[in-house]
């Protein structure tokens, strides 16, 4: 159902141009209070956040604030925002130079050509934009310089002679990180670009030289600190603020910001839920990012892009989107498939992702930066998962940072990866078959065929290495398979206070209000060499635990009108020996 047009603000879903948002009546979550904090920080500012977290919009907002040519638009763009009421001395006082490395085409073996082309076009546009403030023949002279490094050298010196200062912004400085981590040949070419006399390294060395001249401030963003480490011995005056608590909430939305947005739209759109009910739907999927150890227990962040996707759908149709994960997010995570390739390279008993799944958390020392060549170090790999948004800070454990999967969006992607690690031949499980079984589970209560299918896949795809892992493999594989079920939000043992149950298949009644069945699944494992009596012991233990958990408020509040089934599953080695329903 569509609603009538009103004067309500539009949602800036997918938008990155601050000026368009402000002039064309779009809703804007005010992040300008961070401008004074940035100004009090190191003038050469590195900041890492996962994809779709508002990095490009933040950079664009800062560009308009500092650009000497947007002075006359200040009140229009910022007047009702925090910084409009508390402007800093530096506002509208820079020539703004913006480079977006995601626009660089070409592979690493011809990276120079792509960098030269992007910078050549950008530098010339810069000179034309600020022609009134720069030497008259600057464009013609710029064209005589060969490539990005020479042109940057010329540009910042010309600006210094004209007594102008540059604020340099670089977005997605590390856009080729996925490529370099995916195979050894790319890593070698990348090493050549970023070490010794490599062209990319020379470019960053030239930025460093410019900071002694007219480049007075830099703000550089990306999704990983890998490239930073390899480049910053050339550019070693920048500071990485990614793990700093004062900037924890600079990108993404806090819950109060999400509530404020929902409250605004509830006054001009038809809402079928209260604000609290909508938060309850969104929170498990989009919240729970924490980017600073000191911020744990205080403020968690929602993925801003996913919130806008949800609210946009809700305003249009009056209900949660049937698919809670936006398609672009899926594409982004597909780009991270190289993480699985790296995880596979670890010794079989040191798989970071399997450890994470089997115990519900992982510990590590978050690194501010590390070279690409050292990605196989477990702490570095854990840090990479964290920076990519696959892990979030959840306190400390035995003196180390404790990291967990932040939410359902990430969980679904991570378990998809996990199935790929189990499936060494990279065969794909039949999506149509899985979909049919999932539907029968939710609407017809056909649980036996569902768990038979999982057991059959487990047996078929288990390698000798997996069999040696035993319980952690059976546990992880079952979790990964059930996490694929679109009708449920699986709550695993690590998520529950009671700690009795392995999996509670929590029905997504807000999306599928007509589904009829929900499940508690108590999974037990006996070693292949254990006596048969052990299977029976575990079966009785599982029955008791399933009954206890079924009586908790967590389950009672979530099952709604569905029929709750308590399923006990016991494996002996790789074989499912028990799969039965506990009588009510």
Question: Could you describe the 3D structure shown?
Answer:
The longest helix is centred in the N-terminal third of the chain and has 19 residues. Helix 6 runs parallel beside helix 8, helix 8 runs parallel beside helix 11 and helix 18 packs across helix 24. This protein has about 575 residues and is α/β, with parallel strands linked by helices. Strand 7 and strand 8 form a beta hairpin. Helices cover about 45% and strands about 15% of the residues. The chain contains 26 helices and 13 strands. The strands form three sheets. Strands 2-3-4-1-5 form a five-stranded parallel sheet.
Number of strands: 13
Low-confidence stretches: 494-500
> Helix fraction?
40-55%
Tally of helical segments: 26
Structural class estimated from helices and strands:
alpha/beta
Strand content: 5-15%
Strands of the largest sheet, in order across it?
Answer: 2-3-4-1-5
Average pLDDT for all residues:
86
Rg from C-alpha positions? Answer: 27 Å
Question: End-to-end distance, in Å?
Answer: 41 Å
What best-fitting shape do the alpha-carbon axes yield?
globular
What does the main sheet amount to?
A: 5 strands, parallel
